[in-house]
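Weekly sync, protein design subgroup
Attendees: M.S., D.O., the rotation student, P.L. (late)

Item 1: inverse folding check
M.S. brought a backbone from last month's batch and wanted to see whether the design step gives back something sensible before we order anything. D.O. pointed out we never logged the input encoding, so this time it goes straight into the notes. Structure tokens as presented (120 positions):
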């Protein structure tokens, strides 16, 4: 599946590498940990919003995750978040659960790719 292979090939965007070169070797690792921690919390919040049928909160959380994922080069995650954001904006509750599962899987794939990258 192209979606998974896209995630497995995660690399930090050039701008992050450039900043990391100026800030020091630990910069990227700290950035990865911050992204993972914040995103894990936001995915939990998104799940709660879906369960509570709070579409405004679903839109807000998915929009925020989308931005972070885009900045970190997790394009597949950002695309899933965009789907969630658009569905919630259109008032569509059906399918949000499946999209949340897709986002969780995508996030797990990104975390694995980040771990593999940071060890290399």
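Designed sequence read out in the meeting:
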């Amino acid at each position: 599946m192209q979606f998974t292979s896209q995630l497995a090939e995660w690399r930090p965007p050039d701008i992050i590498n450039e900043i990391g070169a100026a800030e020091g070797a630990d910069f990227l690792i700290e950035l990865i940990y911050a992204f993972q921690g914040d995103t894990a919390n936001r995915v939990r919040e998104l799940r709660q919003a879906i369960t509570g049928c709070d579409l405004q909160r679903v839109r807000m959380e998915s929009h925020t995750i989308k931005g972070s994922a885009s900045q970190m080069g997790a394009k597949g995650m950002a695309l899933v978040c965009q789907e969630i954001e658009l569905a919630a904006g259109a008032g569509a509750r059906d399918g949000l659960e499946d999209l949340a599962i897709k986002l969780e899987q995508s996030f797990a794939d990104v975390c694995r790719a980040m771990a593999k990258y940071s060890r290399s």
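Discussion: Residues 1-7 have pLDDT under 50 and may be disordered. DSSP finds six helices and no strands in the chain.
Action: P.L. to compare against the previous round before Friday.
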